[in-house]
Amino acid sequence: MKNKSEKKPIIVMSAILAGIILLMSLTIKIYAAPDKSVQFIASQLETSKTRLYVYKDFADGRNYYTQKAFMGDNYIQSNIPAMNEAAGSAYSGKTCIEASIDLKKEPWGGYMFVNGVLRAGSTEPEVDFGESPDAKVDLTGASRFVFYAKGETGKERVEFFIGGLGDDGKPYPDSAKYSMGYISLKKDWTKYSIDVSKLDMSGIGCGFAWVTNDTNNAPAKAIKFYLDEMYYEFDNKPMFIKSYAAREVDESDDWVINNFAYLYDNAAALIALSKSGEYDKAKQIADAIVFAAEHDRYYTDGRLRNAYANGDPQTYSGWHSVITEEMSQNSGFWEVEDGAWYEDYFAVSASTGNVAWAILALNETHTTFPDGNKYLDTAKRLGDFILTLKSKTGGFTAGYEDWERQEKKVTYKSTEHNIDLITAFSQLYKLTGEKKYESAASHAKKFVLSMYDPKLHLFYTGTGNDGVTKSKEVLPLDCNTWAILALGEDFTDGEAVLAAVEKNFAVGGGYDFNTDRDGVWFEGTAQVALAYKAIGNEAKYKEILAFLKKNTGKNGSITAADRDYITTGFTVSGMGDMPWKYAKREHLGATAWLAFAKLGVNPFK
Predict the structure, then answer these.
(1) How many CA atoms lie within 13 A of 116 on its CB side?
(2) Among 514, 501, 497, residue whose Cα is nearest residue 561
(3) CB-based burial label for 42 (10 Å; 0-12, 13-18, 19+)
(4) Where in the chain is the domain with CATH 1.50.10.10?
(5) Whose CA is closest to 231, among 96, 94, 63?
(6) Maximum distance among all alpha carbons in the chain?
(7) pLDDT by residue (tens digit) across 359-406?
(8) Is 1.50.10.10 the CATH classification of the domain at 15-50+237-599?
(9) Euclidean distance between CA atoms 111 and 85, whole angstroms
(10) Given 37, 278, 551, 555, which residue has the most CB atoms within 10 angstroms?
């Protein structure tokens, strides 16, 4: 599978009554109206719960029917219709589809948006035309299909239809087909709707299609038109939230992560929702994490990937896991021009800290939905995977990188990862009583404390690849703030650390990711606010909180950075020397930490 980036949370009374009140106090919590940043996070689940998209934005994880099948007389690459799925001038979001056909070279043609299949053990999906019995999506319960379209001139005539795949004699045709016939497009974006409530939608391999010809467009010799916001409607489901707001395609390659739902961001969002009493919405993310852990396309050892596609965690019918027929949906996208499926090196890898945050999220959900142990059972399974990464020289190594069957164990150790593990394993021990988790928490804590430099009053980022030598080249902010939040009374040098943070990271009213101070990293700034609160400095906490609120968007969200692009000092995994940077782009993880700061909640406690 290819990496596109390479291409680019009293009155005395009777004993009986007092007992009843005590019991109630253990099960009932009263919450104020959700904070606006929490409302923003919750809204991301709302917008996903009733729609199954054929196209939302280029490479959006909510896009179903990712394979595109050409229709026409001759498959000559230079003649077939062009379809750019990352065009500008969108109706909604950042991108739309630009479709065009030269009717002199190809008198008729179009594309079907099809589901395809992924063979168990494979990493490259294949287009299916009705040969596979399970390459269909069950759309039962959908009421309508909606899409938006416009023509370049307003004179284009195009036929749009859904279903119909395999009705030319294939063994497994679609359960329904409906065509709108040829319609004349308008020059402005127009909404179209197909009522599907009375159709048999139990097995649809072609979610949408367009076709046109020279006869219906005479005397024009070529036409161009645009499509956007194409979706069916559905009920509430498990859901991953997109980490970053969609970005227009540019030369930075930052747009490649348009459909990424980073595991860490979603875990933090879950905890923020739960701490605000938004239990049902937190459960949507928890259910997505559980599904992903149980339905990886290859691994059976309990790991989770660093990122998944945003939206429904269950991938398309016909895409098979080695473990089960169902499969969790990795982030990726299909590019028509190359005829290829692309995934990201880091997204398919498994980092220890991200898995640890999933444990924190599942433990949080278990405390609010204790009826049954599926969240705790999954958390234990993740914890047991991390136990295999325990190092004899202290701490836990950083996980695995690369695609399945060519994965490499990462031998360096991250201070941040091990901080996460102190809390994750401590919680597992309290919830299960299993001594192995208590021992693991102590093992991680000992490593973290060994990374502290009492002269600098800062924690180093971890070790080099030998797992022993301290890595001193980059001093990141988060392993210092998180150490204060996670270690609590076990670490008494918090004031000195924050003084060093002020000296080395403060910039423009906020704080940078690293010591070059080239911009404000808002997620880290929220972490500093909470660290000050943890050591009892309420004045500084409120000062930073006021700064964060000033930079909060009207919808309650906040961007990753205050400008494009602030550096971290690190490079992108698998991309050689490509620098890892943060952009001024609406960010789920930063918004979750903003919510923690405004709520005064320490997610490690």
Answers:
(1) 20
(2) 514
(3) buried
(4) 15-50+237-599
(5) 63
(6) 91
(7) 999 999 998 886 668 999 999 999 999 999 999 999 999 999 999 999
(8) yes
(9) 12
(10) 37
